[in-house]
Structures are given as C-alpha cells and as structure tokens.
Task: structure prediction
Amino acid sequence: MKQQYSISSISVFLLFLHYTNTFAQSPAAAPAQAPAVVVAQPPAATPTQAAAPHGITNVTKILEKAGHFTIFIRLLRSTQEENHLFSALNDSSSGLTIFAPTDSAFSELKSGTLNTLSDGDKSELVKFHVVPTFLSTSQFQTVSNPLGTWAGTGSRLPLNVTSYPNSVNITTGLTNTSLSGTVYTDNQLAIYKIEKVLLPKDIFASKAPAPAPVAPAPEKPTKAVPAANVESPVAPVDISGAVMFTRNNVVGSVGIVAAAIFAL
Ligand SMILES: *[C@@H]1O[C@H](CO)[C@@H](O)[C@H](O)[C@H]1NC(C)=O
Ligand SMILES: *[C@@H]1O[C@H](CO)[C@@H](O)[C@H](O)[C@H]1NC(C)=O
Ligand SMILES: *[C@@H]1O[C@H](CO)[C@@H](O)[C@H](O)[C@H]1NC(C)=O
Ligand SMILES: *[C@@H]1O[C@H](CO)[C@@H](O)[C@H](O)[C@H]1NC(C)=O
Ligand SMILES: *[C@@H]1O[C@H](CO)[C@@H](O)[C@H](O)[C@H]1NC(C)=O
Result:
C-alpha cells in the first residue's frame, strides 16, 4: 500500500516536472508545494470521471447542481424520462429545450394533483415540458406556435410561447407563466426555469367541457349552448380548470406533497 502510494506520488511528480518543462510557465514558488497537492487526489480519478458521462450532458446533474428542482428530478426518475433525455442528447442533432418547474411551482398545485395522476399521465406531464429542438431565448421571437413537445401536438396539447421585450411568456390554455431564468444552455440543450407547472389540457381538462367564451350557464338552455353541455346544463362552467382539482382531491396525497416540500 505504502509503496504503491509512493510510486504514484513519484509518477505524478514526474508528470508535474514534464508539464513545468513543457510550458515553462509555472510560478517560482510552485515546485515544492504542487506535487503534494496533486497527490492528495486519487491518481485514478481523472480518467474514470472523464469516461463515465461519455461526453453526454446529464440533465439531472445540472438540475441537482442548480437546486430547487427536487420534485421535477423525482418525476424525471420515476417516469424514466431521465434515461430518455440522456439517450436523446446522445442521438439528437436538433437538440432539446426543457422548461423546468421549480419546487415552488409544484407546491402551488392543488394538493394531490400529482398523486392522482396515472403513471402514463405523469410521463405525459414530464414530456410536455420537453421541446425536441434547441431554442435560444432569441429564437422564441420567431418560433411558430403551438410548439410540439415530447407529449405530442394537437389541440389538446398546445404550448405557445410569446416573446416580449422583457419576458418570454408561455401558455397552455390552462397555465400562463413566463421564463424566470436560464438554468443551462449550450448549443444543443437549453434548460429554462419556470415558476408554474405547465398543465396540458389533455390531462387536466379531460373532465371539463371545452373552454368557451360563455361565462355562467344561462338559466334556460339556448341554441348557443354547445351540445357537449347538455348533460349538465345548469352547472356553472369553470373554464379555469381549477374545479377539477378539488374533485380529485385525495386526503392521503396531502401528506405526500407536504413530505415532498419538507424534503427540500
Ligand atoms: C446523471 O447524474 C445523476 C445525478 O448526479 C446520476 O444519479 C446519474 O446516474 C447520472 N446519469 C448518467 C447516465 O450518468
Ligand atoms: C451514444 O450514441 C452512440 C452512437 O449512436 C452509441 O454507440 C453509444 O452507445 C451511445 N451512448 C450512450 C451512452 O447511449
Ligand atoms: C396557440 O397558438 C395558436 C396559433 O397562433 C392558436 O391557434 C392557439 O389558439 C393558441 N393556443 C393557446 C392556448 O394560446
Ligand atoms: C392566460 O392569459 C390569457 C391572456 O392574457 C387570459 O385570457 C387567460 O384567462 C389566462 N388564463 C389563466 C388560466 O390564467
Ligand atoms: C407575461 O407573463 C407575466 C407573468 O408570468 C405577466 O405578468 C405578464 O402580464 C404577461 N404578459 C403578457 C403580455 O401577457
């Protein structure tokens, strides 16, 4: 053990000498101190660390380092979308854009929202936050709406962005928010921070009638009322989508959400 240690110390020292000779730029005081500092690291660490990521950007690691994304990270893991992102970043030439909701964004959801979702819906929710192209902030000015996401396209999955001089706003029809910061960007991957979870109509408006500019239901049905409303003609129509959450409320889930928040 001891011998191995000195051999590696010596080789690191020789390496150090090699570098000082090659570049001839080392500060005058360095030779006495530098080898000790270098030896303090396990010699094998550098090659191993370099090999592990295969040069592929690790989204989870970026989010962990940035902090305040623990719930989003947990969802990425539980839905396996973490692996999907990893292989997409290896394969994709067009890159990715991720809208990452903060923990406080998740805490603003009605209690039980996540827990009442099926595994499929959880995957869809995560995928709805991933756009399969790299978009820099300036590209939001020219992008055409609606954006396609990993969750798909179509009238039940709109995701629109609008660029203003001081903000980039996003709407899903149920959620309005704006980008609140750039977590990460290179020329392949952009991760933007958002303060609200983007709720796709496909999941969260499934039990509500199609949003219509008709405010309260009229006392007696008229020709203007869409056919879809016939079964519950008198019930007030809440187009905000908030009503569904209270219907789906599950007592046990409150504790789980609370636990998730305390875990921060
Ligand atoms: C990405 O980083 C996370 C967190 O540091 C780690 O748990 C995961 O194993 C990494 N994934 C890969 C494929 O290296
Ligand atoms: C990345 O892509 C290359 C070429 O398609 C493939 O050989 C390699 O296994 C991939 N690496 C990972 C970690 O998926
Ligand atoms: C998104 O943009 C498209 C095209 O401009 C528009 O037709 C649609 O109504 C918009 N959806 C929302 C939810 O803003
Ligand atoms: C989102 O913004 C639009 C336009 O400003 C507004 O009409 C709509 O009511 C907002 N929706 C929500 C859910 O806040
Ligand atoms: C953009 O979104 C922010 C909140 O995220 C809101 O305050 C602002 O009014 C929105 N701008 C427009 C033009 O809708």
Notes: The radius of gyration is 26 Å.
